[in-house]
Amino acid sequence: MRTQDLEYFIHLTKTQSFTATAEALGISQPAVSLMIKRLEDELDTTLFIRKRGNNILKLTGTGKIFQKQAEKILQLVESTKKEINDKENNSIQLGVPPIIGATLLPLFLPNLIKFSEKIQIIEKGGSKAILNLLRKGEINTALVGFSQPIEEEAYPDITTTLLIKDQFQIWVGENHPLAKKTTVSLKDLREQSFVTLGENYVQHQVFLNWANTHNIDQTNIFSTNEVATAKSFVKANVGATMLIEMATNTNEGLVKLNLENISLPYFYIYLMVRTSSKEDSLQNIVSNEIKEVTRKHFSHKSFH
């Protein structure tokens, strides 16, 4: 079975037309038909049927099964090619969510300037999006946040190192009424609006779970995908927010509330490296630099 046949097959599932597929791929229609027949003979099944009255192709039941597996195979082939290329070029694609990136990148990148041509920073959404890129092999290194400790066996192709454990805090603008209180009760919080990050951020689900546990009204919530926007909302007294302490600065006009017997969740930051890349010399240099920086600047939160 050739990968080119799989590519043609997937294209045909999208166009549902031999003619359209042939034109798009720059080959003859008989060549597409021959490819499908070759696959059907090899699999001993029928992959497509024609709907009566038109030439639109529809997948059979076994065709749908093969479509799902073919997509996985092609994705695996592409990620394998990329890993081989990255290893030969000794390059790193480092994925970082905005909050983690804004905090850690300025601390360790200055010491890696001489490798700048071989290090590509990928910032795409929150930790969920970055983890997805890592698992698909589109990047080989990542700094990822989780709402709880992870088990190593959960990611068999990835080496994980816990860097930081930081507790979430509740923040308000410096001119907010709660900012002046010595302690803040659960009743106080239940009367507030809240600002949260979008669904791609770990913080979003962590906050919703926490709010649900403490019976905090979730109807008065403002959501944004931009961390800076969320902070500006809080500073303008649109609402309170839940953020880890390392994600805030003293000059941002935010005040951490001293809560009265109210438990708060933790945020776990991991260095995650695809196993195929961990022995590379540059990978070792970058990983060691990240570990050293977190140990130096966050010694009270560091776990490695």
Automatic annotation (TrEMBL):
SUPFAM superfamilies: Periplasmic binding protein-like II, Winged helix' DNA-binding domain
GO molecular function: DNA binding; DNA-binding transcription factor activity
Domain HTH lysR-type: 1-60
The entry's keywords: DNA-binding, Transcription, Transcription regulation
DNA-binding as UniProt keyword: yes
Gene Ontology cellular-component terms listed: cytosol
Protein name as catalogued: HTH lysR-type domain-containing protein
